[in-house]
Amino acid sequence: MATQAAQDVKGFVAIKKPFSLAGFFLRWEWMLVALIIIIGAINASISEYFLNVVNLFDMTFNFIEKGLMALPMTMIIITAGIDLSVASTLAMSSATMALLFKHGAPIWVGAIAAIGVGVLGGWFNGKCITKIKLPPLAVTLGTYALYRGLAFAMLGDIPVKGYPAWFTTIGQNYIPGTPVPISLVIFAVFALGFGLLLHRTAFGRSVFAIGNNEHACRFAGIDVDRIKVRIYMFSGFMAALSALIMAARFGSTRTDVATGYELYVITAVVLGGADTGGGKGTMIGTILSTFLLGIIEWGMSLKMVPGQVQQIVSGGVLIFAILVPNLLGKFIKR
After folding, report:
1. 170-184 burial, b for 16+ CB within 10 Å, e for fewer?
2. Residue 155 is part of a domain; what is its CATH number?
3. Helix (H) or strand (E) holding 312
4. CB 303 within 8 A of CB 46
5. Which of 4, 58, 176, 230 has the most beta carbons within 10 angstroms of its beta carbon?
6. Domain residues for 138?
7. CA nearest 187: which of 59, 66, 292?
């Protein structure tokens, strides 16, 4: 049985599924496109400022950091894992950079250190999950508190300001001669990179195989532990990169930054079609759902909807994203 399972996994990793035109147009991503159009039309009807091209591009400033963290989270959830510590990793990385800058280090030194700390945080999560065999939920719930606590220990309640202009340009400015934010271009580059990694490489096919049957993957010779550690390190890296962009956007660093962002990130991935049970998900789905959530929040902001109500809406969207596909699946089986 183990040998047969191993052969099935090897076939899954090596063979690419044939293209189906009907299957293509029945994909969940088309539903997300339809929702983006519908929500966009609603927003345009309630605010004359929504369809302004400059405003549409400026809207992306509010969710680029979340979108960057959602890219590796897609891989993590496909392997039936979770990372609740992404926002805390962002805070810890940002605090590391701010602390070094506060004590006279050049901002680029602090940025490199922040990236290193983020990757180390992801590596620690991955090792606890693979070597100590702790559940991802338990590990990242613990580091959710640990990393945020370390950020407070480094900076306390006092924000760090005064970053050089060239650094803040990354988070605040646009591509010369266009309304396109520099941070949006950064997101597009990484979205393309993660999309190719997940859907066009053996590494990505192994990620899907692990989510479908981790036990069989081990029999097939796939280094499951190494792949898991790497995707958690990707998560730490992207959280640290998000920390740099956020610090540049606000021109300062506080230890309470990104509070609650983990909910948005997980919602974006699940709404994008990823299965929390593993084995299913697409990068384009995550990207589309990130923009969908951003459009929803932007529309509520234009109508001055309180932040607490926006959180309720985000929680409702997460429940919708989990409930509807399951109900549809049961209906189709019947």
Report:
1. bbbebeeeeeebbbb
2. 1.10.3470
3. helix 307-333
4. yes
5. 230
6. 59-333
7. 66
Q: How far is it, in rounded angstroms, from Cα 165 to Cα 332?
A: 56
Please give the C-alpha separations between residue 113 and each of 91, 107, 108, 109, 192, in angstroms, as whole numbers: 13, 10, 9, 6, 26
CA distance 317 to 301: 17
For the chain, how many residues are written?
334
CA–CA separation, 137 vs 33, rounded Å?
31
Note whether 144 and 124 are within 8 A (CB): no
Question: Is 29 a domain residue?
Answer: no
* Rounded-to-integer distance, Cα 55 and Cα 58, Å: 5
Whether residue 6 is contained in a domain is answered as no
Q: What are 30's two structure tokens? A: 């088309």
Q: Which helix (H) or strand (E) holds 330?
A: helix 307-333
Rounded (5°) CA angle 198-202-205: 55
* Inter-residue contact 217 to 278 (CB < 8 Å): no
Q: Does 209 fall in a domain? A: yes
Count of structural domains, the chain? 1
CA angle 279, 189, 168 (to 5 degrees): 125
Residue appearing with tokens 């950091």: 65
User: 216, 210, 202: which is closest to 229 by C-alpha?
Assistant: 210
**How far is residue 259's CA from residue 256's CA, in Å, rounded to a whole number?**
6
Q: Per residue in 100-118, is it b (16+ CB within 10 Å) or e — as a string? A: bbbeeeebeebbbbbbebb
